[in-house]
Amino acid sequence: MRTQELVDRHGRIATDLRVSLTDRCNLRCSYCMPAEGLDWLPHEEALTDDEVVRLVGIGVERLGITEVRFTGGEPLLRRGLADIVRRTKALAPTPDVSITTNALGLERVAPTLAAAGLDRVNVSLDTVRAADFHTITRRDRLHDVIAGLRAAEAAGLTPVKVNAVLLRGINDDQAPELLAWCLERGYQLRFIEQMPLDAQHGWTREDMVTAEEILASLESEFVLTPTGTPRGSAPAEEFLVDGGPASVGVIASVTRPFCGDCDRVRLTADGQVRDCLFASTESDLRAAMRAGASDDELADRWVAAMLGKRAGHGIDDVTFLQPDRPMSAIGG
Prior knowledge:
By secondary structure, the chain is an alpha/beta fold. The chain has one domain: Aldolase class I (TIM Barrel), CATH 3.20.20.70. 29% of the residues lie in helices and 16% in strands. It has helices at 49-62, 81-89, 106-116, 130-137, 142-154, 175-185, 211-218, 286-290, 295-306, 327-330; strands at residues 16-20, 67-71, 96-101, 120-124, 161-164, 188-192, 224-226, 237-241, 247-251, 264-267, 272-274, 283-284. Strands 7-8-9-6-5-4-3-2-1-10-11-12 form a twelve-stranded mixed sheet. Helix 1 (49-62) runs parallel beside helix 2 and helix 1 (49-62) crosses helix 9. The chain starts with 15 loop residues before the first strand and ends with a helix. The mean pLDDT is 90.
């Protein structure tokens, strides 16, 4: 078997694959999509379970991928998720496999996913106040998310990680409250700066709650100290809380970009390779695969796709254009 690396012209090597299994979601978060939802990807354009596993297998066995995260939309809406996880964990070498989820329905499927070999979950949760959860997501489902978090821990999908976005005027005063809530339950919390990936293209830097603001808010109630551990390609800056051992992370994709150490590549639900979350171009593996391309040919296409990766996402550049695809269609 011929092996290669997913290396770009700047010397970065992609080893972390994010796979969107669907663009559909059962929440309507205001910073992601409009209340009425979006026009979903036609079923025939989405990769089948076998196609997903084949492409992931090429990434793992031929191209050096060591971590696979299944995302959406909402990956729990993918009927074949558990089987995809099981088949991915059967690859050699065995990759680390996780999902990013809103946790709706996780209470029911956490044991099945754990049995399939899933290593852990990242749960998106921006507030623990029911009214604000409804305002942000346009759904009254906070209790389901909390039940899903408990089920994930009970199933051994640990450490359970929570990702939170703060929105100005809604939950921007809740960082200490959310951290205290996660500390009490043993969850690992990471705050993420809101990024220009909403379907409505309504994002503005002025409205975004910055990492500096998040840290200042946390420090009003906690003592934060840098862990001192080099983060490498990890997106979060980690801080010990009140001397540790617990910690909190801040992902400052906009104000403190970490593009120089990026090791990620993305595969959309319709089989397009994206070398960056903010990429303006994609490379189509689905069409080639359905036309009969061999694994070697698909691997070569994937390698070629990575060569065009830019040095950075360019949000601060005056020429920056928000991607046509919103986050729900790209995958986190």
